[in-house]
Design a protein that fits this description.
It is built from two helices and 27 strands. With 334 residues, it is mainly beta.
Amino acid sequence: MKSLILKSLAFGLITLSLWSCKKDEDQSVATSGTSGSLKSSTASVILDKTMLAKDVITFSLTNANFGYQAAVTNVLQLALKGTNFANPKETILPANATSKAYTGLDFNNLLLSLNLPTTTNSDVEIRVKSSISTNLPPVYSNVVALSAKPFPLTAWIYVPGAYQGWDPTKADSLVSLSGNGVYSGVIVFDGGNFKITPAKKWDIAYGMAGAGKISTSGGDISSLTAGAKQLDVDLNNLTYSLTPLVWSIIGNAIPGSNWSVDTDAKFINDGKGAWKVTLALTPGELKFRKNHDWGVSIGDASGNNITIATAGNYTLTAVINADGKTGTVTVVKN
């Protein structure tokens, strides 16, 4: 009888073991993943403003395989050829999409975000990054080569704040000459707070989200102190910076100056780096200088003081070069 009981127990344990093994076989286990594939409808995209609303390129893709049915997140990555995708621009593709078409406007913005030149073709590499979890490394598709040339698409954002009564319809603007999401301009702040809006209304407003960071849920941004400052905003990386910047004129041709009092010029926010001032002048000399300091100054074509021969009302314009130190000055008698 005892022997019979032992045999029954042994049989039961074997059966349970086999059942457990069967269950283990039925479980799905994620693997390291097999890459999907990517194809492009064209090998060259040369864009212009007539193509804004048209589909200019279509990407076809197959999903990566991670060993079982799972929601795969696909991200299209674009990078300049030769950079090995060290700092790619990314855009998330729709879930379960097997193709994605881009209009001229949308693809132009992607190309401009790479800071590509708008006068010559550039070689761009494109691939898909696929992932299912932060616990597993992503896999990458084959690389598609593309010859591309975007066109400049000037864009503006706006800076309502205490300096102008918090009215977005009348706020100073920042400009992006290429429409690549990076904006710049000079604003005369009063030391109070401000925000950043993509349009002249409060529908969307960026505020402070930590040092040098912005978000649509952030609070007011402080201008810190009163005075003219260059405000740079990167909506791609959600960052901003403030740098004191003003160009002024000084000299004995300016009533009340006598080489000791500056008259500030106004920055013209059209991306050309121009500062302009209109005022009455008397015979004498003057110069433009940066930040009320003689460390950087601009005179006539020879670098000498600018001579005013006759009294009158004048408009002076200084166009500053990209180096922020040199430029040209024009003097027009009104």
